[in-house]
Amino acid sequence: MDCGFGCGRLIGGLFIGLAMFVAAVQSVDAGKSKFNRLLSVGDAAPAWKDLPGVDDKRHSLADYNDAKVLVIVFTGNHCPVSKIYDERLLTLARRFAEEKVQMVAINVDRGEGDVLKEMKTRAADKKHPFAYLHDASQRSARSYGATVTPHFFVLDADRKVAYMGAFDDHLTLDKVEKTYLADAVEALLAGKTPRVRESLQRGCEIRYESSAASDDE
Fold it and tell me: Domain limits of the chain?
């Protein structure tokens, strides 16, 4: 993991802090979201468009209409928890490579320097098989009610929210017992409703800027 100097201490602190931030999980009915103030399971996914990617192209939600299942993750380039789950997302993407499943990672970091340049380096190093986009305006994450990085959303063929929350139930891989995201994708591919449709997201808090201006424009 390429966290850099001091990352171990930071991750250790996160593990301690997040131990108190237990990932409570439950199945919920549409319209009764417990962990999202804006979206509920069953809602139409908010559209986003014209986001720059590491491939030097602009991307929109409509570009992925052919996917039977679309996984969207709001992430950050420097969040240690995002880095942990980047590896798991890579594994999941390879697992469903032959299925009509597409994944899109949207970086909502704002800060000094060329964020997109850093993203290109990360995508190349990790050999991302999915789109990696930057939303400096943070509008896409706001519209989904995303609160942390990473925050996962699974959309069905009608682009309605079928699952949202955490990737799984533990930061430590060998302690994972419930694979929420993978289970949701499998259920949708089988024409079924995910058993668990919402979980408590875990990660680094998204610090939303008051300005809606985009650094990419």
Answer: 7-205
Q: Are 208 and 109 in contact (CB under 8 A)?
A: no
Place of tokens 């380096």: 121
Class assignment of domain 7-205?
A: alpha beta
Mind listing the pLDDT tens digit for each residue in 109-138?
A: 886 557 899 999 999 998 899 999 999 999
Round to the nearest angstrom and report the end-to-end CA distance of the chain: 32
